[in-house]
Recover the amino acids of this structure.
């Protein structure tokens, strides 16, 4: 079976987890800080908070920016549901901005139009969550310029984009965002089993995120309200959660971070190879990434909508676990109940009807890739 995405665990990764098992601290120990430091230094950003998963990272990020009832949060419809659900958890309203046909990312021109209309109607968003689909950064300079003009905050969903760069800076550096989040689910760029992280340059936001991860509790007397009873004392000053990552997971993550550059290099090499061996087939390939900036979490091709299902089934029948990223979030039943309808975001819907995610991960061999392409070519030839 060839999976669309898959972790790579080596002996050093296993030894790192074993070392934590043999230590005193299975959770709330020193490995968490080391993993946070490894990601922060890769991303050139000062404050990192490891959490239990990427969804928790999104939820805490909304809370840390003060999202609540009466607020609006906008994101891309071409994403995993968590990018939108995080705002609903906070009691806010969600809306979407349609994607750019080439990059498949939230389109800054459509965002600008929607902001002008929202300003007129008095319903500007508090937060916009651009999603770096497939590992390619959104146009963050354009989005940050709009954030300044219209006064919203920005959370980058970089679940696909750890290891990517944007105009010479690492994705995650938060030059154009208040917070960046990422995920360490096994299909993502590195894994901790389950896991996620928030990154920020804003020290106050960073402290708030760390506190919200652990029940909203502080043991810093400087933050005390009233008397500080003694050295045993702590206070709950926010309503937080237990969204902690374990040290077992952090050890795996710290070890995986050393391998991130190789993982991304292998993904980029596989993408170059896909482009070569797919060039004569009647499929649309992802837009060029001339600067090799994308982390290439996903490799999505587009086939004629009328053939998508047959092609998908032919690949699955050959034990090639292709996938589709993404069913537009606004078409999910939960979101339809909130009033969204087919036709609301036509680019995302058109793209969805044609998309197939081919296997792409560091463990994929050239021979696996040849088999995927041969199976795809045979299916397309049968369909004529
Ligand atoms: C994976 C993913 C998430 C959620 O991450 P989990 O760690 O699975 O909670 C959020 N947004 C996007 C775009 C993702 O791909």
């Amino acid at each position: 079976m060839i999976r669309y995405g898959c972790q790579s665990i080596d002996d050093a990764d296993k030894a790192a987890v074993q070392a934590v098992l043999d230590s005193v601290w299975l959770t709330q120990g020193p490995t968490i800080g080391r993993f946070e430091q490894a990601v922060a230094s890769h991303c050139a950003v000062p404050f990192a908070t490891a959490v239990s998963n990427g969804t928790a990272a999104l939820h805490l990020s909304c809370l840390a920016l003060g999202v609540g009832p009466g607020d609006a949060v906008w994101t891309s419809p071409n994403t995993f549901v968590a990018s939108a659900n995080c705002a609903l958890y906070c009691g806010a309203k969600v809306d979407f901005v349609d994607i750019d046909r080439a990059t498949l990312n939230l389109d800054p021109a459509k965002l600008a139009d929607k902001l002008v209309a929202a300003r007129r109607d008095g319903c500007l968003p508090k937060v916009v969550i651009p999603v770096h689909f497939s590992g390619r950064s959104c146009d963050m300079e354009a989005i940050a310029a709009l954030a300044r003009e219209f006064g919203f905050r920005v959370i980058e969903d970089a679940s696909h984009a750890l290891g990517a760069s944007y105009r010479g800076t690492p994705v995650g550096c938060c030059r154009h965002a208040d917070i960046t989040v990422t995920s360490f689910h096994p299909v993502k760029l590195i894994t901790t089993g389950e896991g996620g992280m928030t990154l920020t340059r804003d020290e106050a936001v960073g402290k708030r995120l760390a506190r919200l991860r652990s029940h909203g509790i502080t043991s810093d007397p400087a933050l005390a309200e009233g008397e500080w009873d003694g050295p045993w004392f702590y206070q709950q000053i926010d309503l937080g959660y237990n969204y902690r990552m374990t040290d077992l997971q952090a050890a795996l993550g710290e070890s995986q971070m050393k391998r991130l550059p190789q993982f991304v290099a292998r993904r980029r090499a596989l993408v170059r190879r896909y482009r070569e061996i797919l060039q004569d087939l009647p499929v649309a390939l992802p837009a060029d990434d001339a600067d090799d900036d994308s982390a290439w979490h996903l490799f999505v091709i587009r086939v004629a909508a009328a053939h998508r299902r047959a092609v998908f089934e032919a690949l699955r029948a050959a034990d090639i676990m292709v996938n589709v990223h993404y069913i537009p979030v606004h078409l999910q039943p939960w979101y339809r109940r909130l009033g969204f309808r087919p036709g609301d975001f036509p680019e995302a819907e058109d793209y969805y009807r044609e998309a197939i995610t081919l296997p792409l991960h560091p463990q994929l061999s050239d021979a696996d890739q040849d088999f995927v392409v041969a199976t795809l070519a045979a299916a397309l030839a049968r369909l004529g």
About this structure: The pocket of pyridoxal-5'-phosphate is lined by residues 53-55, 79-80, 82-83, 131, 157, 159-160, 183, 185, 196 (CB under 6 Å). The chain is about 40% helix and 15% strand. The mean pLDDT is 97. Residues 2-257 form a domain with the Aspartate Aminotransferase; domain 2 fold (CATH 3.40.640.10).
